[in-house]
Ferritin-like domain-containing protein
Amino acid sequence: MVYADRVLSLFGRRRRKSAEAPTLNSRDDATLRSERVALAELTPPVERFLGQAAYLQLSLFESASRAAQLGPTVAAKRASAAIAEFPLEKHRALVGLIEDRDLDAVDLMEPFAPAIDRFRTVTTGADWHESLITSYVCAGFLDDFFAALGRGLPKDLPQRIGSILEVEDAERLIIAELRWSIDATPRLSSRLALWGRRLVGDAMLVARSATEQGVDADTETRLEPVFTELIGAHTRRMDKLGLTA
Amino acid sequence: MVYADRVLSLFGRRRRKSAEAPTLNSRDDATLRSERVALAELTPPVERFLGQAAYLQLSLFESASRAAQLGPTVAAKRASAAIAEFPLEKHRALVGLIEDRDLDAVDLMEPFAPAIDRFRTVTTGADWHESLITSYVCAGFLDDFFAALGRGLPKDLPQRIGSILEVEDAERLIIAELRWSIDATPRLSSRLALWGRRLVGDAMLVARSATEQGVDADTETRLEPVFTELIGAHTRRMDKLGLTA
């Protein structure tokens, strides 16, 4: 618990290492650039993007705050509450972008509630460990995805969305909390690895439905390289916990 | 929901009207001053005060975030999440005061967990309305109490504790959310009035156990005028919701 506190104290709100850097294999810049253009064509209109992203963060906050309720010790509760601040802050910042446009955040979020509520229900962990993995895997994957999808938005929005979403401090906190018990408990680690695999599938479904065209063959083709990259990031994230992706 | 959004946008983090002003009846300043001195004598040592206050805010965050989970609409969830930010921010600020002293927040909070967890369990509302009333009544009463108790702390701590705890924006948000449905539903209002009465009793028990001496006859005598004042504030708070205290 002292380690987690130290991590919490040391870091500011650091930006995630830019997802622009080639990550998975040695594909050249031109390929990457064309993939990004292809994804930008799937970016929904600003209002749809912001309503959906804001409600998703509210939902991720619900999941993260549930981890605080399930925390078995004072240290676990304290760390979980600190982790829950991140989606709450992202939600508030996205609502701020909506209100800057004199739009009503609730009106924009409402259409996405049924699907995202379903997502939250199926990704609800059975205990504190699973709940933290939900925050780690789903927020990790979907923050990356929405930041990438946001690059197709007009004006300064891509940069603003990026700086709201691409913050990796919650991940450091979760690693500090979980790594020890995962290393010490093989049975826990196999259960959490399976749980993580389930979650990334659910996160991909949400990501796919967030695009402008919805699910059709063309969308799949455009999404595929992006998903490959995001799954690479997911695998590295699981590695950091000592879990098989 | 538009009203709640407007309330949310309009206010900054305003300080609560100072609890120093005479409130309940026409007791003169000298009486008030002597009561405050009497309470200051019950102030526990800094470490005990901060550990307890920090864990209480963590616990109030748990209750408030549960309201977000129970919120029946997108508007209710969004308002509840905004309300949950307040205890989370207070918790973080109090942990900051602990860490400024190079102490471990978890170590200082741990001794108070059993009693405060019990308090949280008995004050858990059955639905969203009751959960919001829990945030309103318990946080209202206990923030006032800890701010008053903190006046016996050394150096600049009374002022710092006061500016952390005496923020009334969560109350405005809760009023904006609940007032309408209370006015429209007599049955709800009598149920919530009863719930509020229960809660203030639970809050008084926590307040009493937070003092240095614990429960003895002398403590009771010193606490009585303070509780009278805090119950006056509680009654005005319930009035604002259209509920009998």
Summary: Chain B touches chain A at residues 1-2, 5, 9, 55, 58, 61-62, 65-66, 68-69, 74-75, 77-78, 81-82, 84-85, 88, 91-92, 95, 99, 104-106, 109-110, 113 (CB under 8 Å). Residues 1-27 of chain B have pLDDT under 50 and may be disordered. Chain B has one domain: 2-6+46-240. The domain at 2-6+46-240 of chain B is CATH 1.20.1260.10 (Ferritin).
